[in-house]
Design brief:
about 400 residues; three-stranded antiparallel β-sheet; about 10% strand; about 55% helix; 2 domains; mainly alpha; Glycosyltransferase
């Protein structure tokens, strides 16, 4: 399979270097006011100038990460610096929490109600500090990470709409992102602290949120791990769970924990099987565990990030286990994804397909889609297939 792995490595590298990154380099950088435009139509024309903190931070992270791990391109570092400087000037409130959105000039529009702005800011400044040797960014990454840990049991704080006590729920989103975020900032922290946080996150993912009978990850559970019979309690987001499984595999491979790797691979494949649309192909965005009508009206859409993350999970599971079922799912996802998301005319990927797999929204970026999932997926997959090709060559 060496030649197939090499071909896939070239495909992912070319898509990243020659197609996706140039789209953002050409169209997203706001040279007048700082930061990035993310609301870009199919051809890259800006249709809204508001700036969403988590997308600003994600783009800083992307270009910093690629500078650190792929190639020391000065242009990548400057694009990262452009966004980092904007975030330093405008991104936080007086308490050090990161806003959700700003206007083009950097004046706050939406309060710091969403802790995920903080999560991606910590990731961004950790990678940028490493790339630029910037002490201020290093301190900012650590301070933000500590603030996340302080807020994690009540992430929305005074902005929460939930009445306490009636139906307490634990959200999958925070342990899921913390498992990955902690590895991003570990070079700045005490190893024992990182291990404690990561171990707790993995334990929560594979015990509290995992329904062992169904082999599925739920988005919300009661504090004891049970499933309240309500829409939030029955919610499964296959892509979200699949993304978490490759985070867990990435953690487990560091200690050669094959039992955890295989367990995470099993959950990934269960979610793919459960979420796969047998009629039209692709993975549903969200589902009700008992098959009841969804409150999310976009439940049957086929989103770019779900399939980008599933490609990583399936390829990584195959790389770490050698299992044929993992490779079969990778090929199935590869064929579906590459036939539908890349735009051969203007570059980058479409983000939103309808259930039939047709383009639903003719855009490349917006309030939720930015320069993150696609380039991260392409980079990780290029690395996986490079390693697989090298391993195949060594085994001959």
């Amino acid at each position: 399979m060496k030649e197939e792995f090499l071909s896939l490595e070239r495909q992912y590298r070319s898509a990243l270097i020659d197609d996706v990154l140039p789209f953002w380099e050409r169209h997203s950088v706001d040279k007048e006011r700082g930061g990035y435009f993310t609301c870009l139509d199919r051809a890259g024309k800006v249709f809204d100038t508001d700036k969403f903190i988590w997308l600003q931070a994600r783009q800083v992270w992307t270009f910093s990460m690629l500078f650190n791990r792929m190639e020391k391109r000065a242009s990548w570092l400057e694009i990262a610096r452009h966004g980092a400087d904007f975030l330093k000037r405008h991104g936080r409130d007086s308490e050090g929490n990161w806003y959700f959105s700003l206007n083009r000039e950097g004046r706050p529009l939406v309060q710091a109600y969403n802790i995920f702005s903080d999560c991606f800011a910590a990731m961004a400044f950790s990678q940028f500090a490493l790339a630029a040797g910037d002490g201020e960014s290093r301190e900012l990454a650590v301070a933000t990470y500590r603030n996340i840990l302080r807020r994690k049991n009540n992430p929305k704080g005074r902005y929460s709409k939930v009445v306490p006590g009636t139906r307490p729920l634990r959200s999958f989103a925070l342990p899921m992102i913390l498992s990955n975020l902690s590895l991003e900032v570990e070079w700045l922290l005490d190893p024992a602290e990182v291990k404690a946080v990561v171990d707790e996150c993995v334990r929560d993912i594979l015990t509290l949120f995992l329904d062992r009978k169904r082999g599925l990850l739920f988005e919300n559970v009661s504090p004891d791990g049970s499933h309240p019979d309500c829409m939030d309690g029955r919610l499964i987001a296959p892509g979200h769970g699949i993304e978490a499984t490759w985070f867990v595999m990435d953690i487990a491979r560091r200690t050669n924990d094959t039992a955890t790797i295989n367990k995470a691979a099993d959950v990934a494949l269960n979610l793919m099987e459960y979420g796969w649309d047998e009629k039209y192909g692709g993975i549903f965005y969200s589902m009700d565990a008992d098959g009841h009508p969804m409150q999310q009206l976009d439940w049957d859409q086929k989103l770019w990030w779900v399939h980008a993350e599933a490609l990583i999970a399936a390829a990584m599971a195959f790389q770490l286990t050698g299992r044929k079922d993992c490779w079969a799912w990778y090929r199935k996802l590869h064929d579906y994804t590459w036939a539908r998301y890349p735009d051969p005319k203007y570059g980058e990927w479409f983000g939103y397909l309808n259930r039939q797999g047709e383009v639903l929204l003719n855009l490349k970026g917006g309030k939720w889609k930015g320069c993150f999932h696609v380039p991260r997926s392409l980079f990780r997959l290029q690395c996986i297939f490079k390693e697989l090709a090298e391993s195949a060559a060594g085994n001959k």
